[in-house]
Each structure stands twice: as structure tokens, then as C-alpha cells.
Specification:
The chain is built from 16 helices and no strands. By secondary structure, the protein is mostly helical. It has one domain. The relative contact order is 0.13. Bound molecules: zinc ion (2 copies).
């Protein structure tokens, strides 16, 4: 055991140096690309353009579907694809990447990225848990990632609740709450921070996030009952007032609810497997994440703006926009690989996100 601890500490010194090397190279790559393409200096305008264009495409897809010009499959794929840009914008906005000095436009964008991605937590609330994620990634109080199944063994529960932050959140609330109380007792987490998390849990999904999840469950139950009664040849007719509601529920599910849940499934599958958990050394960025960029992840990456390939870069250099991160990814990956950041470590699936093999037995 001593050998393990000693070798871990030795790695930690090296890892700090490695982290500095990666940071320097990634920042240099960003600087070079900004010099090469001066248009990239207009960060606010670019952000607002991506914001407006993505929302325009979502509205256009919805109109196309409502007018019967595109199929349900196409509207789902299109909305899921364009909302993945809004997800990246939300993350950039959380890090104050656009309209830093214009609070009004910054808040307009925050509201926009939430309204079109309404199955997610309020972005103003998310900021606190996301900043905390950067501070303590991979530890017990990293509620942002733990809320998305990170650190759990792979089973049916993890598979089903990966996209559903309301039902999944309720299922794992007790254990996360216990860990937060323990962290406050041990001094790992301040009481103010713990109360902030509690406030987010209580109010972060109000008003329309919770409302839309309830609509979704109602939709699922309704069609499950119809399916089962039909399969078993049981005579059953939904009351008229319930059937009438599906005139607006069906299009809402097709245009907004299902595409977002599908997109979140892709994103959460990637993010909850590329972050390590449970035995990550405090503050060791090398151990916090891995890069998932093999071809078989493409179906997921398509709906989360290549998150598996680029999010690890963000852990090293936080203050950069998502599109620059994408443009500089090959240079970043080169130095990350040289410095020992893991790539496509599929062992994480059987280690429940643990970084080290020897810790699995105690997980
Ligand atoms: Zn992260
Ligand atoms: Zn971040």
C-alpha cells in the first residue's frame, strides 16, 4: 500500500509539470489560430451568430415538421444536432466567454440556450456547480458529474437514468446528500457551498424543466398503457379529455422534449465515461479526464459537438471558446498524448470510472 501511495505522490509532482506543458502548448495553438484568422477576434459576434443560427434552424425544423414537410425522425435529429451547439454556448456563457461587459445580451443568450434546451438545469444555477466541478473534478462533491451517473457501476439503472436528470436525480439524491454532509463535517466543503447545492436541487429545475419532465412521463405512461392493452386484447379507451391533450403533447415531444433527451443521452454517455471518479488526486488535471475520440463514438459525438474529443482539453485551458478548442484539437491531443493523458480507455466501463486498476476492489 505504501508503495502505491509513494508512487502516486511522485506522479503528482510530475503531473503538475506535465499539466503546465500541456497548458502552454494549447494556449500557444489558440494564439496561433487567432493570429492566422483575425475574424476570430470578434468573439461576441461569433457567439451571437452561432446562437441565432442554431435557434433559427431549430425553429425552421419545427415549422417543417408541423407543416408535414419533414418526418418525425428528421425533426428529432435536426433539433438534437442544433441544440448541441446551444449546449456548448451555454458552457461558454457559464465561463463568461461572450458579452462579458454587456449583462443584458449575456442574459438573453443564457435564457435562449435554456429555453431551447429545457430538460436541463437552470444555467444561472449550473454555473455554481460547474465551477465546483472544475475545482474538485472526480471527487465526492463533484455533484455536476455525479448527477449524470459518473462513478457508478454499469447496470440497468445507469443505462436508463443517464439522460433523465429528474428521475435519476431523485434516485441518487440520498447518497449524494450523505456525501455532501460528510464533506461539510470533514471541512472539505463549506456550509455555504452545501446550502447553495441544496438550493440548486430544490429550485434549479423550476418552472418549465420539471413541467416538461412531467409531460414526458405522462406521454410514456399513456402510450405504454395503450400498447399493453392492445397487445393483451384488453378493451380500453382513454378518457376524451386525456386524448385531447395529445394534440399538443405529441408535437411538443417530437419538436422539443425527445430531441433534447436524445441529445442529453449522447452527451451524458460521453461525459460520464470520460471523467474519472473516486480515486483522482485532488487538483491533478491529468487524472481528471481522458479523450474519447475513436470512430465508434461518432454517433454520440455528432449530438454533443465532439465533446469526448475536446472536453479534456477544456480541463487544462478553461478560458477558451468551444469552436477554438475544436480547431486546435489535433495540436492539443498531440501534446496531451505525449504527456500521458489517456485516450479511449475503455477499461473505465468496468472500473466504474476509477482511474487506477487497484482501487476497483475497494469501489
Ligand atoms: Zn469536465
Ligand atoms: Zn467548464
Amino acid at each position: 500500500m505504501n508503495t502505491v501511495i509513494e508512487s502516486t505522490q511522485a506522479t503528482s509532482i510530475n503531473d503538475e509539470q506535465k499539466t503546465r506543458i500541456i497548458r502552454k502548448e494549447v494556449q500557444l495553438a489558440s494564439k496561433e489560430i487567432r493570429e492566422k484568422y483575425p475574424i476570430l477576434k470578434h468573439q461576441n459576434a461569433i457567439g451571437f451568430f452561432i446562437f441565432s443560427f442554431s435557434i433559427g434552424m431549430i425553429i425552421l425544423s419545427a415549422i417543417g415538421y408541423l407543416q408535414g414537410k419533414i418526418s418525425v425522425l428528421l425533426v428529432v435529429l435536426s433539433v438534437a444536432f442544433w441544440t448541441s451547439f446551444l449546449h456548448e454556448l451555454e458552457h461558454d456563457l457559464i465561463h463568461f466567454m461572450y458579452f462579458k461587459k454587456n449583462k443584458f445580451l449575456q442574459n438573453v443568450m443564457m435564457l435562449g440556450v435554456w429555453i431551447f434546451r429545457p430538460m436541463t438545469i437552470n444555467p444561472w444555477f449550473r454555473r455554481a456547480i460547474h465551477f465546483h466541478h472544475h475545482r474538485v473534478s472526480g471527487t465526492k462533491t463533484d455533484v455536476e458529474e455525479r448527477g449524470l451517473t459518473n462513478g457508478e457501476s454499469w447496470n440497468i439503472r445507469r443505462l436508463i437514468t443517464i439522460a433523465d436528470i429528474l428521475f435519476g436525480g431523485i434516485l441518487r439524491a440520498k447518497i449524494i446528500r450523505r456525501d455532501i454532509i460528510d464533506a461539510v463535517k470533514s471541512g472539505e466543503l463549506s456550509k455555504t457551498q452545501a446550502l447553495e447545492f441544496k438550493r440548486i436541487k430544490l429550485y434549479g429545475m423550476l418552472p418549465f424543466t420539471t413541467f416538461l419532465y412531467l409531460i414526458w412521463y405522462f406521454f410514456l405512461i399513456h402510450y405504454a398503457v395503450l400498447f399493453v392493452t392492445t397487445a393483451l386484447h384488453i378493451s380500453y379507451q382513454s378518457p376524451d379529455f386525456i386524448t385531447a391533450q395529445f394534440k399538443w403533447i405529441n408535437p411538443l415531444v417530437a419538436i422539443l422534449i425527445f430531441p433534447n433527451l436524445f441529445r442529453m443521452y449522447c452527451l451524458h454517455f460521453i461525459t460520464s465515461n470520460m471523467h474519472y471518479y473516486g480515486d483522482v488526486e485532488s487538483g491533478n488535471v491529468i487524472q481528471q479526464t481522458q479523450v474519447l475520440n475513436k470512430w465508434y463514438f461518432i454517433p454520440f459525438q455528432l449530438f454533443c459537438f465532439n465533446f469526448g474529443s475536446t472536453h479534456a482539453i477544456h480541463h487544462f485551458v478553461v478560458n477558451e471558446t468551444f469552436y477554438i478548442r475544436q480547431l486546435t484539437a489535433s495540436k492539443a491531443h498531440k501534446v496531451m498524448r505525449e504527456q500521458g493523458v489517456r485516450f479511449n480507455d475503455l477499461g473505465t466501463f468496468k472500473r466504474a470510472n476509477r482511474y487506477f486498476e487497484h482501487k476497483v476492489a475497494t469501489a
